[in-house]
Structure prediction request, 439 residues.
Amino acid sequence: MKLYIETYGCQMNVNDSEVVAAIMIKEGFQLTSDIEEADLVLLNTCSIRENAEDKIWNRLDYLKGLKKRNRNAKIGIIGCMAERLKERLIEEKVVDIVAGPDAYRSLPSLVKQLDTGIKAANVLLSVEETYADIIPVRLDENHVSAFISIMRGCNNFCSYCVVPYTRGVERSRNPESILNEAQDIINKGYKEITLLGQNVNSYNWTTDNDQIINFPKLLEKIALINPNIRIRYTTSHPKDLSDELIYTMAKHDNICKHIHLPAQSGSSRILKLMNRGYTREWYLQRIRKIKEVMPECSISTDIIAGFCSETEEDHHQTLSLMEEVEFDFAFMFKYSERSETYAQKHLKDDVPEEIKLKRLNEIIELQNKLSKKSKIQDINKTLEVLIEGYSKKSKKELNGRTSQNKIVVFPQQNFKIGDYALVKIKDCTSATLIGEALL
Prediction:
């Protein structure tokens, strides 16, 4: 039986697909990169925004044709969309299996159930499941970067967000299993590990002898395994970003100097409506601490334009926050209401679409200027780059990332994927640094 997995959404979903691959290979499946020859097609889905779900509905239209060409092929929807829209998905004729993020262990039995002619579904959320005992099958073709999920679920209940409803309550994973997985990744030759969680800052584990391991302590333990392996993490929540974490990052050279710190808005009024748990002033105080301790650290963010009741003044506070922080890069979206969230039930989505789009475009325009400014400041610097692949434009050029998570493109010379290279930065665009490696 051949298995084809297609992944949408966040890095957590990428890692979940690797967990699913491990489970299914153990049951005798063989991975394939050709969807046309697959006996089982799994779409690992995202529900964070409406357009993420729209992609899946469009993809299902294509899969109807696949089923006509291969009547034996089975189609499964897994992940957050499976959890959120289970009834609607089960009604889709093309869909055979629906499995939520905590139900991946049951996939083999769900596949067997299809032999009875009955569709199979498991969307039960768990308060314990972390897949800690499963070593994922790494799907990164270049064998450079690997992901480790250190926790699952979320307890924050931001008013706009579906994650607590699709991924369940927050639970941390045994640190020993995380360290074992990190060592396995290093043994396999990977050069970079990214620790994943909906809010990694709230990682917390109490050992049998009552020792508390929080996220900074876990991060340090992983960094100490091998000083030549880069360590990243995502995502941080501003309300839980501690001084201890900032100092831990500064202490270890192999912990990458980049923090993704979603602001979402620059208005304290809007942040309160979003149930973010911090104010504009708190956010800026955390930024000042990062820059004080690690002036070389890059900072990226998420911004939502046009949240419920957002005024022009609220919007301008977001723009001013961006200017004060000078984010290196950002993920920017207009607000899309998600069903079953607090905002959908209790707040009015009253900002007109044309105003949302106008504000989003202003945010994007400003961020492009800030990103370009950030890149210009790197010109004439020599930066260490971990090479991840070839440039999109030419096989004669390589691309990789700095510790600050900035993309660098440079001529290949004698370097290969997986190498570290010292690159002198010569030029830039708003998205990319352009340089030449020092031999």
